[in-house]
Design goal:
Helix content is 88%, strand content 0%.
Amino acid sequence: MIGLVIWVGAGTLMPIVIIPALRGVDDTNRTKFMSIFTKLFLPYFVISGIVVGLTGWYQTVQMLSDLNIPAIIAKHIAILPLIAVSIYYWFFLARKLSKPETTNNNIWGQFVIFGWIQAILGIIVLVLTGWLTS
């Protein structure tokens, strides 16, 4: 749960707090912020992703022994899109926005949209995980 909270917490913080705050910032300072933020956050993202993966694998093995197949399917249906969106968001979009030569509004627009998608998927996964482990 701690790994998921770190992952979902940052993913939710982006569209609710950070992106609106960056709208009023010029491109140069936005790029500086994204460069620093991405470098600081990526290690936490990777570590929390590994923790979520390992504990998810353990929970799946436990659920298989209980023959709770519908719960396993629901969990994987929710987590796989979150993983894909998060990797695209942090390793591609955030990195592009942290480069000085990137001032494309299309990339910023994708960053905003995928930020909300990541936040919504993360909340769904967090709720499902809490429900399935209770």
